[in-house]
Design a protein that fits this description.
The structure is a single chain. By secondary structure, this protein is an alpha/beta fold. It has 3 domains: 2-89 and 279-300, Rossmann fold, CATH 3.40.50; 93-173, 3-Layer(aba) Sandwich (Rossmann fold); 181-274, Rossmann fold (3-Layer(aba) Sandwich), CATH 3.40.50.10800. The protein is 45% helix and 15% strand. It is built from 15 helices and 12 strands. The strands form 3 sheets. The chain has a 4-stranded parallel sheet, sandwiched between helices. A 4-stranded parallel sheet has the order 6-5-7-8. Strands 10-9-11-12 form a 4-stranded parallel sheet, with helices on both faces. The structure holds 1,3-dihydroxyacetonephosphate (13P) and iron/sulfur cluster (SF4). Iron/sulfur cluster binds next to helix 5. Keywords: 4Fe-4S, Cytoplasm, Iron, Iron-sulfur, Metal-binding, Pyridine nucleotide biosynthesis, Transferase. Belongs to the quinolinate synthase family. Type 1 subfamily.
């Protein structure tokens, strides 16, 4: 307890001294999310993290999340110093989409508009026509479909197939997945639903189709929180990383939030929905990076300039 308070005070002082602001994702440690809130930083989904970092006047952005979030911040504001508590925090979607193979895939389908998920490297974004996050993917693909465009989608096949089903667009999928959301099981969710028939099922679209099918609401992290907040029901089954419960509980006092099962039959697994890379962000690693000033994100300037085009398109699409 006392030690935690010391970390917190040290981090607050260092943020101020360095004119730095904390930009955190909903999946990070609640202690980090609370600090971001207290210090005028932001806690949000990946779209709003990108927007906040780009618009904030601080010289230094401390991005608590995973690598693609730091890279996105650097691409959008190359003159700012972007630091992360750890440089090891990656994402299975990013890992599963190596730039050279991806580029060859694009070359093989020159007639398609390339739409990539934000959970990718700078090099993959540089090859794209559009970058999207889960909160904006449906709207962007709808818009492209209405213009008669055929889509090449990467890397998340579950989000891609959800988008394809919802929009009816012609979508060619890359074969990638999120190791956290892929583990949610339809059987487990329907068993829970049988136990709590009144519960609303909230699902992140990185989950498999069979789970998405059971959802009352499908959406990004912020859309999931918003649904829990605005729906009148009192009980929610939530298929996304458990880090989200900090903000959800804060926004929904008195409501019961249940994490969707990830393994086996029934509601046996209640502790699996947790991203190992997001978990690398702690008060200790956060304080360390502020003290040392290392773990700086760098993006090749030429690559960054190319990646900025589809990223800026995303931000401009929904102001
Ligand atoms: P959103 O916060 O944009 O919904 O993304 C979820 C995610 O997987 C980030 O790692
Ligand atoms: Fe990547 Fe999944 Fe972790 Fe998000 S939760 S960072 S998509 S591995």
């Amino acid at each position: 307890e006392e030690e935690l308070e010391l970390w917190r005070e040290r981090i607050k002082r260092l943020l101020k001294e360095q004119n730095a602001v904390l930009v955190a994702h909903y999946y990070t440690d609640p202690l980090i999310q609370a600090l971001a809130e207290e210090t005028g930083g932001c806690v949000s989904d990946s779209l709003e993290m990108a927007r906040f970092g780009a618009e904030h006047q601080a010289d230094t952005l401390i991005v608590a999340g995973v690598k693609f979030m730091g890279e996105t911040a650097k691409i959008l504001t190359p003159h700012k110093r972007v630091l992360m508590p750890t440089l090891e925090a990656t994402c299975s979607l990013d890992l599963g989409c190596p730039p050279e193979e991806f580029s060859a895939f694009c070359d093989a389908h020159p007639d398609r508009t390339v739409v990539v998920y934000a959970n990718t490297s700078a090099a993959v974004k540089a090859r794209a026509d559009w970058v999207v996050t889960s909160s904006i993917a449906l709207d962007v693909v709808d818009h492209l479909d209405a213009q008669g465009e055929k889509i090449l989608w990467a890397p998340d096949k579950h989000l891609g197939s959800y988008v394809q089903r919802e929009t009816g667009a012609d979508v060619l999928l890359w074969d990638g997945a999120c190791i956290v959301h892929e583990e949610f099981k339809a059987k487990g969710v329907s068993d829970l639903k049988a136990l709590y028939p009144d519960a609303v099922v909230l699902v992140h679209p990185e989950s498999p189709a069979a789970v998405v099918e059971l959802a009352d609401v499908v959406g990004s992290t912020s859309q999931i929180i918003n649904a829990a907040k605005t729906r009148p029901e009192k009980r929610f089954i939530v298929a996304t990383d458990q880090g989200i419960f900090y903000k959800m509980q804060q926004q929904c006092p008195g409501k019961e939030l249940i994490v969707a099962p990830t393994a086996g039959a029934g509601a046996t697994c209640r502790s699996c929905a947790s991203c190992p890379w997001m978990a690398m962000n702690s008060l200790e690693t956060l304080c360390g990076v502020l003290e040392r000033g290392d773990n700086e994100i760098s993006v090749d300037p030429e690559l960054g300039r190319r990646a900025m085009v589809p990223l800026q398109r995303m931000l401009d699409f929904r102001k």
